[in-house]
Amino acid sequence: MQYEIKQLEKFRYIEEGEGEPLVLLHGLFGALSNFKDLIEYFRHNYKVVVPMLPLFELDILHTSVGGLEKFVHKFIEARDLRGIHLLGNSLGGHVALVHVLKHPERIKSLILTGSSGLFENGMGDTYPKRGDYEYIRKKTELTFYDPKMATKELVDEVYDIVNSRLKVIKIIALAKSAIRNNLGEELSQIKQPTLLVWGNNDTITPPFVGREFNRLIPNSELHFIDHCGHAPMMEVPEEFNRILHKFLTKLNEPAAVA
């Protein structure tokens, strides 16, 4: 399904449905297509908002986790969103974490899936030679438990990105920023109810990373999904949506009267 891309000032985003805002932040090689099943499921009960993160538009000085967080903060203020359920995958989860730590006042809950912020395996020690399509295909397949999820369309998208010298420089800058910006000591400050959804076969942020987030974030719950890699909302959307739906429903239930 094609969604209209809206424009407000410098921000481009998708917004579907009405209700409490569910804001989705994609990862380093992420695209709006990563969230299509999630948007379709939740737009009937929530205002689902997907800002297009300026991974390649920021100047090199601000091409960092902090630079992306500032962009998200300005976007949330520009749209005047409140009571937000903030969801991030991979680098998007890292940006969500930094945002909650800096600006907790508009955030109702936090949802992380395959998030960086503690530990992640990057593209590897050697960056791809430009033009090496087979290398890019194999690396894209590593995102998933089922390599067939790395469709030609998806591999082509990644290939186009890494074939641009400037985009490669910015990807390396973002990846290095994510490694430097370790949040281990700050996670105990997060007060929002937090849902952690991890693929049991995630090789980029392996299962122990999910367990460590669960240990460090006070009000958090952790769910593992079998036969699933780094992007559960893409690879096992039905299971992911079921877990998220249950979490959001529980948040909105009135507290049991003692």
Automatic annotation (TrEMBL):
Leader sequence residues: none
Q: Name a GO molecular-function annotation.
A: monoacylglycerol lipase activity
This protein's record includes keyword Hydrolase: yes
Q: Which GO terms describe its cellular component?
A: membrane
Q: Which InterPro entries match?
A: AB_hydrolase_1, AB_hydrolase_fold, AB_hydrolase_sf
- Pfam families linked to this entry: Abhydrolase_1 (PF00561)
- What's the name of the protein? Alpha/beta hydrolase
Organism, scientific name:
Flavihumibacter solisilvae
